[in-house]
Design brief:
- InterPro entries: Haem_peroxidase_animal, Haem_peroxidase_sf, Haem_peroxidase_sf_animal.
- This is Peroxidase.
- Keywords: Oxidoreductase, Peroxidase.
- GO terms for molecular function: heme binding; peroxidase activity.
- There is one protein chain.
- The protein has 2 domains: 78 residues, no CATH class; 34 residues, no CATH class.
- The chain has 6 helices and no strands.
- The radius of gyration is 21 Å and the shape is elongated.
- Helix content is 42%, strand content 0%.
């Protein structure tokens, strides 16, 4: 990522309120030990780790697919997209925003409810429509 001007993995850790690593061993909370060994072989200092290999090496956050650094970056991106979207349904612009009553109705909507009301699947669909069915839960 350096060729595109992307800051180091350690800089993004700091941005995301993770402890800035001063040594490779400081990464042990998020990065498996075998990866830290490889990082030590490849990079001179912890500040040399590029964002992508550093972020991809992190253990996923609970219930997630990415580690804390990438989860933070994705969260920042979505927050900024929403904040800057003048057509976002919860926009504060009085000229285009929904009333509180309308927002209340919108917030009641779910994909499962939409499918149940428009298809013959009412007894076969779970509340979290995009989750895979599981006997475990």
């Amino acid at each position: 990522g350096r060729d595109h001007g992307i800051r180091s993995y350690n800089d993004y850790r700091a941005l995301c309120n993770l402890k800035r690593a001063s040594s490779f061993d400081d990464l042990s909370r998020e990065v498996p030990p075998e990866v830290i060994v490889r990082f030590k072989r490849i990079y001179t200092t912890v500040d040399d780790i590029d964002l992508f290999p550093g972020g991809m090496s992190e253990r996923p956050v609970q219930g997630g697919l990415v580690g804390p650094t990438f989860a933070c970056i994705i969260g920042i991106q979505f927050r900024q997209l929403r904040k800057c979207d003048r057509f976002w349904y919860e926009n504060e612009d009085q000229g285009v925003r929904f009333t509180e009553a309308q927002l209340g109705e919108i917030r009641k909507a779910t994909l499962a409810k939409l499918l149940c009301e428009n298809m013959d699947v009412a007894s076969d669909i779970q509340r979290a429509a995009l989750d895979q069915p599981s006997d475990f839960l």
